[in-house]
Amino acid sequence: MKSKQYETWSKEELVHEINALRKQKTYGLVWEKDRTKEEFDFFINWEGEKTKEEFGRESKDKFPVLAEITSKEIVTNKNYPMNLLIEGDNYHSLVVLNFTHKGAIDVIYIDPPYNTGNKDFKYNDQFVEKEDGYRHSKWLSFISKRLVLAKNLLKDTGVIFISIDDNEQAQLRLLCDEIFGEENFLGNVIWQTATDNNPSQIAVEHEYIITYCKNKRLQPKWVVASEKARIVDTHYKELKLQFGNKSTKIQFELRRWMKENKDMLEGVLHYNYVDEKGVYYPDNPSNPHPGGYKYTILHPITKKPCRIPPNGYRWPEITFVDMLNKGDIEFGVDETITPKPKKRITNSKELLRSVYYEDNRRSTNELTELLGKKLFDNPKSPRLIKNLLRFVSNTEATVLDFFAGSGTTAHSVLEMNKEDGGHRRFIMCTNNESNICTEVCYPRIRNVIRGYLGASQIKVSGLGGNLKYFKTDFVEADPTDRNKQKLVNKCMEMLCIKENAFDSVKEGKRYRIFKNDEYHLGIIFDDDYIDDFVKEAQKIQNKFHVYVFSLDESVPTSQFKNLKGRMTLCAIPEAILKVYRKVFQDD
Length: 587
Description:
This protein is α/β, with parallel strands linked by helices. 32% of the residues lie in helices and 21% in strands. Strands 1, 2, 3, 4, 7, 8, 9, 14, 15, 16 and 19 form an 11-stranded mixed sheet that branches. A hairpin with a 5-residue loop joins strand 10 and strand 11 (280-282). The chain is globular.
């Protein structure tokens, strides 16, 4: 870092400094970015070359790829979604996911290092001590570049939860205001934990979960009422303007109008009671007073009829079933609890309680039982994560955790799918420091899926599910034809993840064919084998997404004319390189 003795600076250096100062906000977060450059560990690349000294530059100058560890694959039911566990630095994992999952993630939950100064946060392979003058700047540099990549992954309707404590809570809030926009802040959840027996005068009993959405203005409108019900609502408002607060008169006129228009309003004639706030209640003939409908809803697990509210449901059966099909109904643990609509960001006055209690010691004991011995202290609680996911997600959501740690988020998703029959999928990213991935995270997910014999010798049944295990590695990024071919040779896993196509159909010479529920995926590693691929693809009567090797963006479309009309065509590695160039350029 150059000293601030400006009289010794060149004109170019002074212009650069002035421009940098102009970019700084007058209100917000500013930290010493130039003094806190993050360096990455170096990995063995595909050619077996392996040292920092040999290359003389950071691994940022190599492109990350994924390699599947097939021996760790778990498949219990091909009808279940495929979940992913990626071992490696989460920055590199997020770069790959910017190609495979840009704009595709519904919910992100992360539990990053809290930067307590008690050997919980490593930066450039060194623990950051409390006395480090750049302690907070190092943490901000570390987390900011990951949050920027994470934002790219969220759907416009997506939400991110970030666990943190007082060490970085204030800084993180300002950073997230900058990255996600202050207008997209949803709130702080206060997680009340066990008392911290510290020597200060205030016994800290809580942590925070900072919550932002991608774009609050674009959150989907959750509407229960049908179009006919909205017509009733419009007419009610007109009567309200005409008769003011004369609710009895309004009710009489509304019922008369609905009776006159019964053909047009068939299906919503139950809205014949209006309270003073203009809220409609269905009038069920089996109920002597304004109440609700009574019909049978089976619990998804017990298959028994659920408890009906004393005055019936507020919604007609057709509306309730529609909500059920959309994953908008929350069931209790069994049929004795009345099912109810899920609360959403856009339709609920109370999204989440602002204070949530969960003693982490319980989670430690549960994880010890699951793994057979104590390998990890203070994991997050599955009950806490489920409480977050339940209110912002649906049964088909994709959930990402790029500080996966012990795998609590994966555990939570699997439990939720079992409880409500959902098809959520998770993506977990973690390094393997202290063998956290290979000895804690992966074994936990494996045991939850397959079942296990606990430390207390009690057999626990598996929840079912599928998992693929990947590790990050690198391909040289110099723009040579040789390196482009190497990237293509190693991009198969990334393309399968992007297209969600893991079912292998054909392994030809220098081409592969996979399929998912909607279409087939073709990957051609050498353009000399296009004709061989086309002959095989003609035998398959389905749509194709085809990726073909090309040294530039062009592809020989004439060779694919026999697949015209049922094929999309994309050049690789250019499709990947475009994403990577953007990521590294913005970094």
